[in-house]
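Researcher: Re-running this chain for the archive, since the previous output was lost when a drive failed. Same request as before.
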Amino acid sequence: MVAALFFGVAMILALGACGVNLGVDGARADWSTIDGQHGRKALVVSPEDHDPDLSDEKLPLVVNLHGLNGTAEEMATMAEWPEAVVGHNLLMVFPEGVEKSWNAGGCCGEAESGGVDDVAFLDAVIEQMVEEYRGDPEQIYMTGYSNGGMMTYRYNCERPDQLVGAASYAGTDYSDCKPAGAVPFFQISGSEDTIVPPLGGQSAVQDVGNVPSVPSSIEEVAEGAGCEGETGDETTGVVHVVADNCRNDIVVQYDFVNGLDHHYPTTESFPTYVAVWNIVDFWGLSDRSSAPAS
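Model: Regenerated structure tokens:
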């Protein structure tokens, strides 16, 4: 009886340690419990042939944050991020927010109301990915969707020397932090988004509340990077606004996509503007190998 009990426990632990099948050939996904963070965890996605125990190769690390009421696994499967991992030889981590939320400063959910220190949590995630999975400490990127995009604004502002690139889809800046770093930053918003309306105002979701203007948020990032002026053009229904003369020659860009709502745009759902490939291109990571055209 005792042996059977221990065998059952061992099976449960083994199942808990199993990887997640993302349905993408060449991508491996495993859960990692983050040290010193009260059991909080993250889903780590890497190329199958990347073995941190056997190789000295360091991979660019992308921290990818889910939206409000989302999960790490949902974020990993809702768009072409696993394909980007395989196609561009990246290490990508999808952390889990507290009660499916991030404390972005003035939003959202239980993470914000409970005063969760998500900046410290993301510090710990990055440290563990660098130490255990051979993420490159000189190539750390962050991106987020909705509430995750809001958290990206906050982290980028509070840790100006940590990231080499940031991107927000359907996010805006709720924090009181005033950006002072020069980090390439890419904001994407849809004209039909009623949850995080680009011009600000009341969100269609009660928990999101009154939304800060997206142009004002990205303008503050540009000002913090010392940018002077801007240029704009339009291609196939997308208005591209790029800040000029930024410190260290970085790029701060805002893409306003006509006809796009709050849903994450993928090859299947919105083939005229695929967020993943545009973000990867903006960061310059598509140069590592070929990627599908956006």
